[in-house]
Design brief:
The complex is a heterodimer of chains A (about 350) and B (about 70). Chain A is α+β, with helices and mostly antiparallel strands. Chain A has helices at about 10-40, 45-75, 80, 85-105, 115-120, 135-150, 155-160, 160-170, 170-185, 185-190, 195-220; strands at about 220-225, 230-235, 245-250, 250-260, 260-265, 280-285, 285-290, 295, 315, 315-320, 320-325, 340. In chain A, the strands form three sheets. In chain A, strands 1, 3, 4, 5, 9 and 12 form a six-stranded mixed sheet that branches. In chain A, strands 2-11-10 form a three-stranded antiparallel sheet, with no helix packed on it. Chain B has one domain (about 1-65). Chain B contains three helices and no strands. Classes of the chains: A alpha+beta (about 350), B mainly alpha (about 70).
């Protein structure tokens, strides 16, 4: 959080995550290469690297895009989300190898700068079947580079969370560019229904999981619109111990936590990457963001020392077994007496 | 012609970015963010590519001086 930067925040779980990722990548590359050699005995090493890294990075991008909604649908997938940035950076490196080998194989044989050759060697920009699809791959790779290069928390702080989040939402633009890169590239030569089917299946999974998570989230968040100071929210027993109920009252996104016989309300949006605090749990007395484990004290919305993040807090009370919240926020980090159940 | 100009402009931007990034990860990063003071060299290496890409923005922050939170 806001202390001296470490190079990589590894812990036991993240090391296991990275190790599993690397093992699966090696297994995939070995299996894919073996199949390619069987079906294309004359394939060159360059072509093998280009094909294997292309398919691997595309599969990894699908996994990255699906992890987010999947963990909102079922919290058992949350551990996959905690280390997604390592998966993202690794995916970029694999895609980068694909890009470098492709540029070297197809654009590094004349006097023209290879990068310039990507844009000028094939001028059929008006054609579908002959479109210079490598340009689309170049721009997708550029976006993935910017995302990987700014994955460290240093960038989140210094670019500001809003700009950082906007930049990283460009992953969807990169995905669209890659889909077009594949459709106008390899699928123009290899029209196998299996390849087309797999790509459509991937797209449907990404769209489907996002829609599913959006519908579930909409159901979970109760929306209130009242002008009273305290709004009746729910019965106390409707909130699970050490968990929260998320409500939107007068455009305030509020997470109301129940813990140790008390109730507190803080803003639902984590200062790190706008993660949903209300979908997290109380861990060691702190509200813990489900995305990256950032923590806040329920009584004042402050991260425990030495960290310095703060969120807004709200007055809350319990009467006749019902939880009430005042949607007028206190300034970030203001101590508010928890309501006693 | 247009592609040549754009690619050359990109390469020029990156060349300046590399020179800037070297100075930034050694000196500048500690001037704009106290969390980077005394940070390990691997951290500086990790932010190097981003410093190449965002050098105009970082340069403006560096010129403005210390803006620790």
């Amino acid at each position: 959080m806001s202390v001296k930067y470490a190079s990589i925040l590894w812990n036991r779980q993240k090391k296991r995550y990275d190790l599993a990722m690397l093992i699966l990548m090696v297994i995939y590359l070995a299996t894919f290469s073996a199949i390619q050699v069987v079906f294309h005995p004359n394939i060159t090493v360059d072509s093998l690297i280009i094909r294997s890294t292309a398919t691997l990075s595309f599969i990894m991008l699908h996994i990255i895009l699906i992890i987010g909604p999947l963990s909102r649908i079922d919290e058992r997938f949350l551990p996959l989300l905690y280390n997604r940035r390592h998966l993202g950076v690794t995916m970029f490196l694999v895609a980068f190898v694909h890009g470098i080998f492709s540029m070297n194989l197809f654009h590094n044989f004349g006097a023209v700068n290879p990068l310039l050759s990507v844009f000028t060697s094939n001028p059929n920009y008006a054609s579908v079947s002959q479109y210079p699809f490598q340009t689309l791959g170049f721009f997708a790779l550029l976006i993935l580079f910017l995302m990987a290069a700014t994955s460290h928390d240093f960038w989140l702080k210094n670019l500001s969370p809003k700009i950082w989040k906007t930049l990283h939402m460009l992953v969807y633009v990169a995905y669209a560019l890659i889909v077009m890169h594949v459709v106008l590239g390899v699928l123009q030569q290899e029209t196998s229904p299996v390849l087309v089917g797999l790509m459509v299946l991937g797209m449907l999974m990404i769209i489907g999981f996002h829609l599913w998570a959006g519908v579930l989230e909409g159901r979970r968040e109760a929306v209130f619109s009242a002008k009273e100071s305290f709004i009746k929210i729910c019965r106390v027993e409707e909130i699970d111990e050490n968990c929260a109920k998320v409500v939107i009252v007068q455009e305030e996104n509020i997470a109301i936590f129940k813990y140790e016989g008390k109730v507190s309300a803080i803003n639902n949006v984590c200062k790190h990457q706008n993660g949903p605090l209300g979908e997290g749990k109380m861990v060691d007395g702190c509200i813990t963001c489900p995305w990256h484990g950032y923590q806040y004290l329920p009584e004042n919305g402050c991260s425990p020392a030495p960290f310095t993040e703060k969120v807004t807090t709200y007055d809350v009370k319990v009467e006749d077994g019902y939880v009430f919240v005042n949607p007028n926020p206190h300034p970030e980090g203001t101590a508010v007496e928890p309501a006693t159940i | 012609m247009m592609a040549t100009i754009l690619v050359n402009a990109l390469l020029f931007y990156l060349a300046i970015g590399v020179l800037f990034a070297i100075a930034f990860v050694i000196v500048g990063v500690g001037k704009i963010d106290d969390g980077a003071l005394g940070a390990p060299w691997f951290f500086r290496l990790l932010i190097f590519p981003g410093a190449i890409a965002f050098w105009p923005y970082l340069l403006s922050k560096w010129i403005k001086g210390n803006n620790y939170d």
